[in-house]
Amino acid sequence: MNAIAKMVVVSVVSAVVVFAGCKAKESPPIEPNAQNAQQDQSPPSREQSVPSPALEIDLRYMGRPIQEFTSAEPVFSLNNRDTGERAIRPRIEYRDGHHTIQELAAGNYVLFVSINANPDNPERYPGYPGDFFHMDSRLSIAAAGGVRLDVDLQQVIHLTLPQDNGSIMEQWGQRAQEMIAFAAPVEFAWDALADGVLYDFSIDRMQSEPFKALERSVVKKATQATRVSLNLAPSEDNEFYLFRLDATNGALPIGGIVTHGQRGYGTDFRFRVK
Protein backbone atom coordinates (compact mmCIF):
# COMPACT_ATOMS: atom_id res chain seq x y z
CA MET A 1 0.00 0.00 0.00
CA ASN A 2 1.30 3.41 -0.87
CA ALA A 3 2.06 5.74 2.02
CA ILE A 4 -0.95 7.98 2.35
CA ALA A 5 -0.56 11.73 2.49
CA LYS A 6 -0.66 13.20 5.96
CA MET A 7 -4.10 14.17 7.06
CA VAL A 8 -5.44 15.95 10.11
CA VAL A 9 -7.84 13.13 10.85
CA VAL A 10 -8.14 12.42 7.10
CA SER A 11 -6.58 15.18 5.04
CA VAL A 12 -4.90 18.54 5.24
CA VAL A 13 -7.26 19.76 2.54
CA SER A 14 -9.64 22.45 3.90
CA ALA A 15 -13.16 21.23 4.47
CA VAL A 16 -16.60 22.72 4.69
CA VAL A 17 -17.90 22.06 8.18
CA VAL A 18 -21.54 21.29 8.56
CA PHE A 19 -22.87 22.38 11.92
CA ALA A 20 -25.70 20.44 13.47
CA GLY A 21 -28.34 21.48 15.92
CA CYS A 22 -29.22 24.89 14.37
CA LYS A 23 -32.93 25.69 14.54
CA ALA A 24 -34.85 28.23 12.48
CA LYS A 25 -36.28 31.10 14.47
CA GLU A 26 -39.81 30.23 15.39
CA SER A 27 -42.71 32.53 14.59
CA PRO A 28 -44.75 33.81 17.53
CA PRO A 29 -47.75 31.65 18.37
CA ILE A 30 -51.10 32.59 16.79
CA GLU A 31 -54.10 32.72 19.07
CA PRO A 32 -56.65 30.26 17.67
CA ASN A 33 -60.23 31.45 17.13
CA ALA A 34 -63.10 29.66 18.78
CA GLN A 35 -63.96 27.63 15.71
CA ASN A 36 -60.59 25.90 15.24
CA ALA A 37 -59.26 26.08 18.80
CA GLN A 38 -59.49 22.36 19.44
CA GLN A 39 -57.74 21.45 16.17
CA ASP A 40 -54.93 24.02 16.51
CA GLN A 41 -54.19 23.12 20.10
CA SER A 42 -53.58 19.46 19.34
CA PRO A 43 -49.91 18.50 19.75
CA PRO A 44 -47.94 18.19 16.49
CA SER A 45 -47.01 14.76 15.27
CA ARG A 46 -43.62 13.32 16.25
CA GLU A 47 -42.46 13.59 12.63
CA GLN A 48 -43.16 17.32 12.70
CA SER A 49 -41.67 18.11 16.11
CA VAL A 50 -38.66 15.78 16.24
CA PRO A 51 -37.00 15.19 12.84
CA SER A 52 -34.83 12.12 12.53
CA PRO A 53 -31.09 12.68 13.03
CA ALA A 54 -29.05 12.46 9.86
CA LEU A 55 -26.77 9.76 11.31
CA GLU A 56 -26.59 7.73 14.52
CA ILE A 57 -23.44 5.72 15.27
CA ASP A 58 -22.60 3.10 17.87
CA LEU A 59 -18.90 2.24 18.24
CA ARG A 60 -17.73 -1.24 19.22
CA TYR A 61 -14.49 -3.09 19.78
CA MET A 62 -14.33 -6.89 19.80
CA GLY A 63 -18.13 -6.82 19.62
CA ARG A 64 -18.53 -4.79 22.81
CA PRO A 65 -19.30 -1.08 23.36
CA ILE A 66 -16.16 1.02 23.03
CA GLN A 67 -16.77 2.73 26.39
CA GLU A 68 -15.78 -0.57 28.05
CA PHE A 69 -12.24 0.02 26.71
CA THR A 70 -11.74 3.79 26.77
CA SER A 71 -13.45 6.95 27.91
CA ALA A 72 -11.66 9.08 25.31
CA GLU A 73 -14.03 10.78 22.89
CA PRO A 74 -13.87 9.72 19.25
CA VAL A 75 -13.16 12.07 16.36
CA PHE A 76 -15.43 11.67 13.34
CA SER A 77 -14.56 12.92 9.88
CA LEU A 78 -16.32 12.50 6.56
CA ASN A 79 -15.50 12.98 2.91
CA ASN A 80 -18.39 13.89 0.61
CA ARG A 81 -18.04 11.71 -2.48
CA ASP A 82 -20.50 13.85 -4.45
CA THR A 83 -19.01 17.31 -3.90
CA GLY A 84 -15.39 16.39 -3.16
CA GLU A 85 -15.47 18.10 0.24
CA ARG A 86 -12.98 16.45 2.60
CA ALA A 87 -12.42 16.28 6.35
CA ILE A 88 -15.96 17.41 7.19
CA ARG A 89 -16.24 17.65 10.98
CA PRO A 90 -19.92 17.74 11.95
CA ARG A 91 -21.01 18.50 15.49
CA ILE A 92 -21.58 15.29 17.45
CA GLU A 93 -23.89 14.65 20.38
CA TYR A 94 -22.41 12.02 22.75
CA ARG A 95 -24.35 9.91 25.22
CA ASP A 96 -23.19 6.59 26.71
CA GLY A 97 -21.30 5.48 23.62
CA HIS A 98 -24.12 6.53 21.28
CA HIS A 99 -23.17 9.28 18.83
CA THR A 100 -25.67 11.43 16.94
CA ILE A 101 -25.17 13.81 14.02
CA GLN A 102 -28.36 15.84 13.81
CA GLU A 103 -27.68 17.63 10.53
CA LEU A 104 -25.72 16.48 7.51
CA ALA A 105 -26.43 17.30 3.89
CA ALA A 106 -27.92 14.45 1.90
CA GLY A 107 -25.35 12.61 -0.20
CA ASN A 108 -22.75 9.87 -0.34
CA TYR A 109 -19.95 9.91 2.20
CA VAL A 110 -16.88 8.08 3.46
CA LEU A 111 -16.61 7.91 7.27
CA PHE A 112 -13.38 7.88 9.28
CA VAL A 113 -13.12 7.48 13.07
CA SER A 114 -10.15 7.77 15.41
CA ILE A 115 -9.81 7.65 19.20
CA ASN A 116 -6.66 8.89 20.92
CA ALA A 117 -6.99 6.34 23.73
CA ASN A 118 -3.30 6.59 24.66
CA PRO A 119 -2.58 10.26 25.53
CA ASP A 120 1.16 9.52 25.74
CA ASN A 121 1.19 9.07 21.95
CA PRO A 122 0.97 11.89 19.41
CA GLU A 123 -2.57 12.74 18.35
CA ARG A 124 -2.31 11.95 14.65
CA TYR A 125 -4.76 10.06 12.47
CA PRO A 126 -5.31 7.14 12.39
CA GLY A 127 -3.38 6.68 15.65
CA TYR A 128 -0.41 5.16 17.41
CA PRO A 129 -0.21 1.93 19.46
CA GLY A 130 -3.15 1.67 21.85
CA ASP A 131 -5.37 4.03 19.84
CA PHE A 132 -8.52 2.96 17.98
CA PHE A 133 -9.44 3.67 14.37
CA HIS A 134 -11.84 2.91 11.56
CA MET A 135 -11.28 3.62 7.88
CA ASP A 136 -13.40 3.92 4.79
CA SER A 137 -17.04 3.21 5.71
CA ARG A 138 -19.14 4.22 2.72
CA LEU A 139 -22.65 5.38 3.49
CA SER A 140 -25.49 7.33 1.95
CA ILE A 141 -27.50 9.98 3.80
CA ALA A 142 -31.06 10.57 2.60
CA ALA A 143 -32.76 13.96 2.92
CA ALA A 144 -34.96 12.51 5.66
CA GLY A 145 -31.94 11.23 7.63
CA GLY A 146 -32.55 8.23 9.85
CA VAL A 147 -29.31 6.33 9.11
CA ARG A 148 -28.03 4.07 11.92
CA LEU A 149 -24.56 2.55 11.81
CA ASP A 150 -22.67 0.07 14.00
CA VAL A 151 -18.92 0.60 13.54
CA ASP A 152 -16.38 -2.05 14.56
CA LEU A 153 -13.16 -0.31 15.52
CA GLN A 154 -9.65 -1.69 15.31
CA GLN A 155 -6.73 -1.01 17.63
CA VAL A 156 -3.26 -0.02 16.46
CA ILE A 157 -0.85 -2.91 17.11
CA HIS A 158 2.43 -1.94 18.76
CA LEU A 159 5.24 -3.27 16.55
CA THR A 160 8.44 -3.44 18.61
CA LEU A 161 10.81 -5.23 16.19
CA PRO A 162 12.55 -4.74 13.84
CA GLN A 163 11.48 -1.09 14.28
CA ASP A 164 9.17 0.54 16.82
CA ASN A 165 6.01 2.15 15.41
CA GLY A 166 5.34 4.07 18.64
CA SER A 167 6.75 7.31 17.21
CA ILE A 168 7.91 8.86 13.94
CA MET A 169 9.90 6.10 12.21
CA GLU A 170 13.40 6.71 10.95
CA GLN A 171 13.78 6.55 7.14
CA TRP A 172 10.03 6.08 6.68
CA GLY A 173 8.81 6.90 3.18
CA GLN A 174 12.22 6.77 1.51
CA ARG A 175 12.90 5.10 -1.81
CA ALA A 176 14.40 1.64 -1.77
CA GLN A 177 18.09 2.46 -1.45
CA GLU A 178 17.45 4.90 1.43
CA MET A 179 15.06 2.63 3.37
CA ILE A 180 16.00 1.16 6.72
CA ALA A 181 17.77 -2.20 6.32
CA PHE A 182 18.31 -5.23 8.56
CA ALA A 183 20.47 -8.34 8.44
CA ALA A 184 18.77 -11.73 8.02
CA PRO A 185 17.15 -13.38 9.81
CA VAL A 186 14.85 -10.45 10.50
CA GLU A 187 13.08 -10.55 13.86
CA PHE A 188 9.49 -9.28 14.09
CA ALA A 189 7.74 -8.76 17.43
CA TRP A 190 4.60 -6.99 18.61
CA ASP A 191 2.52 -6.55 21.75
CA ALA A 192 -0.50 -8.83 22.19
CA LEU A 193 -3.94 -7.25 21.95
CA ALA A 194 -5.78 -9.90 23.97
CA ASP A 195 -5.80 -13.63 24.72
CA GLY A 196 -6.69 -15.95 21.87
CA VAL A 197 -6.09 -13.39 19.11
CA LEU A 198 -4.93 -14.65 15.72
CA TYR A 199 -2.29 -12.56 13.93
CA ASP A 200 -2.09 -12.72 10.14
CA PHE A 201 1.15 -11.44 8.61
CA SER A 202 2.50 -11.37 5.10
CA ILE A 203 5.56 -10.10 3.23
CA ASP A 204 5.64 -9.02 -0.41
CA ARG A 205 8.74 -8.30 -2.47
CA MET A 206 8.34 -4.90 -4.12
CA GLN A 207 10.00 -2.71 -6.72
CA SER A 208 10.50 0.93 -5.78
CA GLU A 209 10.71 2.74 -9.15
CA PRO A 210 8.30 2.31 -10.81
CA PHE A 211 6.33 1.04 -7.85
CA LYS A 212 4.96 -2.49 -8.32
CA ALA A 213 4.79 -5.90 -6.67
CA LEU A 214 7.45 -8.35 -7.84
CA GLU A 215 6.37 -11.31 -5.73
CA ARG A 216 3.25 -11.54 -3.59
CA SER A 217 3.21 -13.48 -0.33
CA VAL A 218 6.88 -14.35 -0.06
CA VAL A 219 5.75 -15.18 3.46
CA LYS A 220 2.10 -15.50 4.54
CA LYS A 221 1.16 -17.07 7.87
CA ALA A 222 -1.27 -16.90 10.78
CA THR A 223 -0.16 -17.38 14.37
CA GLN A 224 -1.13 -16.70 17.97
CA ALA A 225 2.52 -15.96 18.76
CA THR A 226 3.76 -12.38 18.94
CA ARG A 227 7.29 -12.99 17.64
CA VAL A 228 8.60 -14.49 14.40
CA SER A 229 12.03 -14.80 12.78
CA LEU A 230 12.18 -14.67 8.97
CA ASN A 231 15.14 -15.63 6.84
CA LEU A 232 14.70 -13.33 3.85
CA ALA A 233 16.98 -13.02 0.83
CA PRO A 234 19.05 -9.82 0.52
CA SER A 235 17.26 -7.02 -1.34
CA GLU A 236 18.36 -6.26 -4.89
CA ASP A 237 18.85 -2.69 -6.11
CA ASN A 238 15.55 -0.80 -6.37
CA GLU A 239 13.76 -3.47 -4.30
CA PHE A 240 12.33 -3.69 -0.78
CA TYR A 241 10.03 -5.84 1.35
CA LEU A 242 6.53 -4.85 2.51
CA PHE A 243 5.23 -6.33 5.80
CA ARG A 244 1.57 -6.35 6.81
CA LEU A 245 0.12 -7.42 10.16
CA ASP A 246 -3.55 -7.78 11.11
CA ALA A 247 -5.34 -9.24 14.13
CA THR A 248 -8.65 -11.07 14.31
CA ASN A 249 -10.80 -12.32 17.16
CA GLY A 250 -12.85 -15.11 15.62
CA ALA A 251 -14.09 -13.65 12.35
CA LEU A 252 -13.87 -10.05 13.60
CA PRO A 253 -10.91 -7.83 12.58
CA ILE A 254 -9.67 -6.09 15.74
CA GLY A 255 -6.25 -4.64 14.93
CA GLY A 256 -3.55 -3.71 12.48
CA ILE A 257 -0.25 -1.87 12.31
CA VAL A 258 0.03 1.80 11.45
CA THR A 259 3.37 3.43 10.67
CA HIS A 260 4.11 7.16 10.73
CA GLY A 261 6.77 9.27 9.08
CA GLN A 262 7.39 12.98 8.80
CA ARG A 263 5.27 13.18 5.65
CA GLY A 264 2.36 10.86 6.33
CA TYR A 265 1.29 7.43 7.52
CA GLY A 266 0.86 3.92 6.17
CA THR A 267 -0.74 0.62 7.11
CA ASP A 268 2.35 -1.48 6.36
CA PHE A 269 6.06 -1.59 7.22
CA ARG A 270 8.72 -1.27 4.48
CA PHE A 271 12.34 -2.29 4.77
CA ARG A 272 15.31 -3.84 3.01
CA VAL A 273 17.47 -6.83 3.88
CA LYS A 274 21.23 -6.38 3.83
Give an account of the 3D structure.
It is globular, with a radius of gyration of 24 Å. The longest helix has 4 residues, at 37-40. A hairpin with a 2-residue loop joins strand 5 (93-95) and strand 6. The protein contains 2 helices and 21 strands. Strands 4, 7, 8, 10, 12, 14, 15, 17, 18 and 21 form a 10-stranded mixed beta sheet that branches. Strands 2, 3, 5, 6 and 9 form a 5-stranded mixed beta sheet that branches. The chain folds into 2 domains: 15-20 and 30-155, Immunoglobulin-like; 157-273, Immunoglobulin-like (Sandwich), CATH 2.60.40. The model is unreliable at 1-50 (pLDDT under 50). It has 274 residues and is mainly β.
CATH architectural group of the largest domain: Sandwich
CATH superfamily of the largest domain: Carboxypeptidase-like, regulatory domain
CATH class of the largest domain: Mainly Beta
Distance between the termini: 22 Å
Q: What's the quick description here?
A:
The chain has 274 residues and is mostly beta strands. It has two helices and 21 strands.
Secondary-structure blueprint of this entry?
Blueprint: E1 4-5, H1 37-40, H2 46-49, E2 55-61, E3 64-65, E4 75-80, E5 93-95, E6 98-101, E7 107-115, E8 132-141, E9 147-152, E10 154-156, E11 159-161, E12 181-182, E13 186-190, E14 198-207, E15 212-223, E16 227-230, E17 239-249, E18 252-256, E19 259-261, E20 264-266, E21 269-273
